[in-house]
Amino acid sequence: MLSELDELRQRVRMLEQERIQVQTLLEDAAKGASLEKYGRGISLYVDINTGIIEEANPNALEFLGYDLKDLVGMPITHLEIPDPDSVPKSYLESAIDIQVFHCRYRHAQGHELPVLVQRWRIPKDNKRVYHYSLIDESLSAQVWRELNRREDSDHQFREKLKVLNEVNGELGKTSSFDALCRRTVELGLAKLGFDRLSLWFLDRANKMMEGSFGVDESGIIRDERGLHWSFENTFIERFLTGDWEPVVTSEGAPLYDDQSKVLGYGWHISAPLLDGETLIGYLGADNYLHKQALRSYQPELLRLYGVTVGHLCARQREQETIRKLSNAIQRSTSMVLIVDKNRRIEFANESFCHISGYALDEVLGHDLGLFFPPLFVQNLWQKALQGQDWHGELSQRKKSGDPYEVLLSISGIHNHHADDPIAENVIIVQEDISALKQAQQNELELKLEHERVQMLETFVTDIGHEFKTPLSIINTGSYLLNILFRDNERAQQYCQQISDQVFDLNQMLDEILEVVRLERNPQFHLELIPLERPVKEVIQALDSYFSQKSIGCKTIWEDYPLVQVDTEQFGRAFREILHNAIQYTPDGGHIQIRVKRDGNWISTRVEDTGVGIPAEEIPHIFRHFYRVDKARTLRGTGLGLPIAQAIIEAHKGEIRVESVVGQGSCFEIRLPSVAEG
User: Fold this and answer.
1) Which residues make beta-bridge pairs with 55?
2) Does residue 663 lie within any of the structural domains?
């Protein structure tokens, strides 16, 4: 860098060149040259009719010593002191009338400043105004101001660096990434003196910029986390190449709102956010709110701020990622252990403690061999340290001694910044598959049982049909013997016994075959019929049984509903229920049949005055071959009720049973009601 003296000499040379330019101004103007190039950036806009100052740029404020609010609205005549020896000269350039003259301008502190004025009419805001461009002709004053400005700027920069160190300490105390981003903007405004700030980050794909927090056009910090834009063909691409010098756009740069609309014009600085040598985003600053002139130290201050904030943001992101990962592992249903190279457990998640039954303090710091079979640890430990992963199933034991099955994975965790090939840690992930193993075992047993049942059904069906032939022969033989020995009473009794037994065997075979058919492949032909029809047919078919035992039968029709049933099969089920009631009702008893509609159900109740069923027997009465009459004093196979239940359930119905020993039983057949129209 140049020394202070060299910089001063250079500035003096520049001002001398400017003086020469001013002297040749009139000559150049006479030749038609543009006067705008001589304007040193000190500009005023004045209403042509009133002479009121409407706008002044920051250089004009600095030159004249006024604040913007004091200068705007002031008549130009309060500043301008005409030079009687200077006659305004007019020039016509590009159809614009330009006047050039010398005069003095009154400084806010009272002293006068010699200036060369260029004044021309220009269109602005749908009207024409005077544009005053002032050139300071006081070289010594400019040099003095420049030296003071530099000294003041250097002092301010040193002070800002002290503040920046304090700001870094405050930012380091933030607890989250979002809080850090918001605090970055707050402290940049409050302590580093920036007018407006915005903080943007590269997305994970390095394709877009994503917002965080910034300052709106009212000076209020706003949430910009939902905003994003493509950085193609922008200064971000320069940052990505490793050129990390701040991008500075001086006066006249467009300043935008969060919708990319131009708010106004001024200076803008963009400084990279760096994590080491990696670009992660950028900090933007401008002077939209207070229109302050750009100070020489501000680009460097923003660059240093970006380096610090970039590092802190990267660390905060890493910490949040670690926290999220830790929470995910801690709450995972998988059991997770992290073990050091000496086999000491450093981490165990909640699932491991919950499933194994060990408390956390019983696990941390203890040897892995306490929780795994010794032979298993010996065989796999060294392999895991050397980077050989292992996956498989293992039988484990809980603290209580109960066994459980796990699906287990073991992997080494290496320090990628070290050359040691041995893993620093080993991670063990276990899934409790006890329920899965039990389900697989149950599935296997169910499959075997299904196969066994199928074999048994096939056997029963085949045997049943095979028995039919000899039983038919026996029955025919009994019939012929009965004719042959019609005069022999004792022979007649034997023949009758043979016929009765053959009948019972045939009935049993029929019922067994029916059970097999219903369980294997039930086929029903449903039709919409009046329930009255099958009920009356069954009652009529069993009339002889009622007569033999002098049992009275009464039917109460509270409704005459239609039902969707297989007529033959429903009749079979109802006959089994009614026959069962007759069988267990003593002579002279009574049976009542009641048909009614019960909500969405059609109810057919068969109530008897029989012996009743003990409460503990009711859950078993629909089992195959189960009989309440253990002494088998009554004829029957124990298959009637199971057949009835299978048929009714195939109709999406149910059978309910109520019974009191010594008083009787009630069997209720419930079928879904159907729309009648």
Assistant:
1) 45
2) yes
